[in-house]
Amino acid sequence: MVTVMKFGGTSVGNGDRIRNVAKIVVNKTNEDKDVVVVTSAMTQVTNSLVEISAQALDVRDIAKINNFIEDLRRKHEIAIEQAIENHEIRVEVSKTIESSINELEKVLVGVSYLGELTPKSKDFILSFGERLSAPILSGAIRDMGKHSLYLAGRDAGIITDDNFTCAKVLRLEVSEKIKPLLKDGFIPVVTGFVAGTEDGHITTLGRGGSDYSAALVGLGLTADMVEIWTDVSGVLSADPRMVENVKQIPKMSYIEAMELAYFGAKVLHPRTMEPVMEKKIPLRIKNTFEPENEGTLITDSSETSNGIIKAITTIKDVILINIFGGGMVGVSGTAARIFNVLGKSNANVILITQGSSETNISIVIYDGELEAKKCVRELRDEFGECHLIKDITFDKEVCVVSVVGSGMKGAKGIAGKLFEAVSESGANIKMIAQGSSETNISFVINEDKLEPCLKTLHKTFVEDEINF
Hints:
Residues 323-406 form the ACT domain. It catalyses: L-aspartate + ATP = 4-phospho-L-aspartate + ADP. It comes from Methanococcus maripaludis (Methanococcus deltae). InterPro entries: AceGlu_kinase-like_sf (IPR036393), ACT-like_dom_sf (IPR045865), ACT_Aspartokinase (IPR054352), ACT_dom (IPR002912), Asp/Glu/Uridylate_kinase (IPR001048), Asp_kin_monofn (IPR005260), Asp_kinase (IPR001341), Aspartate_kinase_CS (IPR018042). The chain has 468 residues and is of the alpha/beta class. The chain has 14 helices and 18 strands. The strands form three sheets. Strands 3-6-2-1-9-11-12-10 form an eight-stranded mixed sheet, sandwiched between helices. A six-stranded antiparallel sheet has the order 14-15-13-16-18-17. Helix 1 crosses helix 3, helix 2 (45-58) runs antiparallel to helix 3 and helix 13 packs across helix 14.
């Protein structure tokens, strides 16, 4: 049995936590024959690499780079001392870390002197987070008597194109690279988020890249299970910071998990589901700090429950753009032109709806006011002289709420009950959309009504489990 175990940044946040992860991994090898580990960078390291690379370009302050390097070196030296007891292993890992940090320092100084930060060099810099944590975790596993080595994403067989910062996977050679190691009794520790091109240049897989890496490794090995270890015990029915009496969801389908992840659930990235879905590999979300908790199991089928809505999630920091105009009626290609403008503006579209009268198109995009103003400006430039569109407005005081559950499919009256509950909370729906899978209904409300809306929906559909 092959299990891929991915550990997030909070799980490997310091040396003590890295040692705890090593214990979990070693215990797992007593249950399953073959284990492959995928690790994120230590807490906040990737964010700090993003910041220092920008500062190296804009400020060009060598003293700041030196201070950053010393802080990074100290952070990882302390982690090595906490995670590894054996002196020889500790010295060996320290040399590896020191070599990597020296390499990083040279690159940052080069960016500062040249005044240039290309996507290729940015990927190289950001890769150091995982390239620093993986040797320490591998060393901690060896410290507990197991054979282990660490692999960068390209060395593990994840080969991508050269679309740096968000590379696309071209080919997987995971089986050829990792199976011989498993056969020889090694526990490979793979850098999450990091991959490489055909000719060996380092790439990164973008947002959610570490979870995605684990799923790719699972796909390449046709694993029996992929486990995502984080700081929560699986998927919850709502955000516990805003809703009381949330429930842990023991089991859900791939589609439900994708919908939740896409619409704001932070525990999982939607791209993670695609590789495991391809070969129907079960995926389990577990809590590193409560390993005895079974967490949430995600499979091809969903667990039957009395309620039809399994979870409620939300996305903040969005903009609602409304496009009005009677001239759009019966005119083909208008939506294509709108999306072309949004694409050129690099807008990330979450939702889109069009009224049956064809006089209104509403779009929700990510990011802040500046991005929305740019989109509005470019849309007005596109349609300014053709009289198709009368007005374009945007509203940034909104959020998206999504209710998810496979039980909604074919359920009569769900929309009526849903809107009744939203009305009861005092919120007003500005836009609504339902996916073709019928496992999700999403709508836009004012952000100041979010908390009462979530509480009312959760009480109605999850706690009281309304039946239809």
